[in-house]
Every structure is written in structure tokens, then in C-alpha cells.
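Listing S7. Sequence submitted for prediction.
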Amino acid sequence: MNLHQMLRARAAAGRPIGIGLIGAGKFGTMFLAQVRRTPGMHVVGIADLAPDRAKANLRYCGWEDEQFAARSLDDAAKTGSTCVTDDAQALLRHPAIEVVIEATGDPKIGISHCLAAIAARKHIIMVTVEADVVAGPLLARKAREAGVVYSLAYGDQPALICEHVDWARACGFEVVCAGKGTRYHPSFHYSTPDTVWENFGISREKAERGRMNPKMFNSFIDGTKSAIEMSAVCNATGLRPQPNGLSFPPCPARKLAQVCKPATAGGCLEIAGTTEVVSSLYRDKTPVPDEIQQGTFVVVACDHDYVKYCAEEYRLLPDDSFSYIAMYRPTHLIGLELGISVASVALRGEPTGAPIGFFADVVATAKRDLVPGEILDGEGGYCVWGKQVPAATSLREGYLPLGLAQGVKLLNPVPRGAILRWADVAIDETDAAVQVRREMERAFATER
């Protein structure tokens, strides 16, 4: 609880944390809106494929032109201003940068940047959770071996859920379930960028005002992002995915302990010690009252009658039997909270969540009947959505990771609703991201 004081001390000493941001999209821009107001932090450089767009986003979120007028990274380091560039590799190598934020959203590029940051002995905050699910356990291991920190991004729901789990375990509770809310209906698995705003329940005008990318936001509505984020939580906490993946039960906030407990106790879970995502819509698409569509939660077990009495006396969001209690956070601030990761990593040497094993995977599942010759368009697109499965199942069945299902040609017909396999696509085994994934599979195959 003293990060702010530690940041002020760094500012007073004239040694602010040197930050390099790669990707100035929505998440990156939200971070930039707050970092300019945070003591002890200096964004030395911003790397983006479209520097003019990045500069426009800086202006849009409150920066003055002179604040990002540095002609080079060296100039930025000397003057305290910020350099906007399209050269991510220069940013990754620069000695003034302590912490790299990878926020491109592209799993292959994210893996490449992460490896380069580790080689340069930079701490890495992986906003691109898609990359974390493809190869995070191996990337985190490589970071530890290099003496740097690999971290999930605070403000994104996986890191917040990891915090819930850590809190519960540090209190001596058994974690039964951890997860988040979302807007879900079974039909949304087949949503495309053409239907995303209708399914999301927001106007096109609002989406355009927020500069929302329809393909990216479609991954939230079609179930993919939920699978990715819950798999990241499993891999960072040791919780296990349910055998058949997420079931998205409708659930009001005050019923979390009643719904997210094992089926043997009257809940919806196939197993205890797992992840789940609750829906803000009933199956008839009517809204769930008191929903936590933007929130996160943890459900824990009461293992003694005294604890059950406390749950009843203090109304600790219990189930009907007072055998389970829930804690939740109703919302998350996304990139506006990312500074917590930067401070924790740089000042404490602690990640805000990091993989400890390979327990869950996200696999490509057909949105429609797919035919040979098609080129898959990846997360949030028209071809596939991501389903959470146990890592052991994914490896045994040869399932295709969702993060590698973009820009590859389909070899075999795949019916709607079926999971794709490596053998169904023309994979380039010389691709760097594919090689990292294969290395991770070998490294963790016997450790689950």
C-alpha cells in the first residue's frame, strides 16, 4: 500500500521509472492518459507502426505537443520528454528504459517483443494476453532466468482476478472459483465484426467515439476474450479449467456464491478450484439485475461452522447454506490502472500476476462451416472463436491454439462448432511464434 510513496521518492531523486510503450491503441492510450499525472514515471518512448496516429491519440488523451516533441530516444532520456517512433527494436534496446509495455494486441508480435525485452534485460508487462496464452508460461520462465520480471497487466481482468485469488489464499481460504462477468449469449459465439455492436448493445456512434476496433471488441462478445483471460488466470494461479470449458451462467452479483460452486453442492461448476465467467444476460436475452458485466470475483469455501456463522452474521455474500462466500469488484479501469503494474514491477520486483505453469489453453473453434483453401482471420473475426480447454486435452488432441489461427490456410473442411487441429491448417513450422509455442509445449508437457 505504499507504491505512491515509493514513486514520489523516485521522482524526488530525479530517477523516474523509464517506460517504453509498444502499441498506442485503446489500452495504451488509456495508460497514457494517466501516466502523465503519475509521479516517478517517465514514458521515454512510444513505438507504434503509425506514429502520426499515436501522436493524435496523445493529443486526444490530454498531452501537449511539447511533451512528445523529443527527436530521439536519447533526446527524450535527457530532456524528460517522450519520443514517438515506429522503431520498436530501438525502444527495446535503449538503456533509459526499465519497463516495456507490450500492447500491440498481436500474439506473434507480442511474443517477439517479449523475447527481445528479456534479452535486453527489461521488465515486460504483457498487455497482449493473447501472447500470454500462446506461450506465457515459457516467456515467464525465460524472464525469471534472465533476472527480470514478466507480468500480466493490472487493470485488465486477469491480473485483478489473480489479486483476488492471492488475497483469498493469503487469508487462508480455499478458492473454489474465480472469474469475471461478461455479456454472453450462446448465439454470440457466431458474432462477426459486422454484428458486434448490435450484440454488444451499444450504438455505432458510441463505438466510433470511443475509437473501438470492431474486430477486437468482437472477441469480447464471441466468448474468445473470456476464454483467453480465464486461461491466463489458470496458468498464473494453478486453478484448473473446467473439463468442458466455460459455461457462462447468468448470475447477479449477490448470487455468485450460490451459482459459482460445485454442481454437487447445487451450483454450476463441474469441479472446484476453477474459473468461470458469469453472464449479464439470461438465455432469453433479458438483462440480469445487479450484474457484474465489467467486474471480477472470487468464491471461497467456509471450512468450519464458525466461519459459516460469520458469513451469516456479517452477510458476506454467502450461498444459501453459508458454506461458500463471494467477494467481487464491480468494474475494472483497464489501461487507466496499468501504472500499478509498472510500479510493482519496477519498485518491488513483483509481477501483478504471472504464469506458473501450463494448465489451460484456448483453441480455435469454427464459427461456420469452413472449407479448404480459406485463410483464417484469427481472434474476433469471421472464421473462429476461442474455447477454453485443459492444456492436457489440447496437447493430447492436437488442437490449434487460437493465437496461431490467423493468416493460415485451411487444409480440411471443419464443420461449425468443431475445434480445429494443427493438422487442419498449413502451419509454417519455421515461424518464430510457432517455434516458441512448440518449445513451451515440450517444456511443460510433463509438468501439469
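Caption to Listing S7: primary sequence and predicted C-alpha cells for the chain studied. Residues 111 and 260 are 34 Å apart (CA to CA). The longest strand covers residues 174-182.
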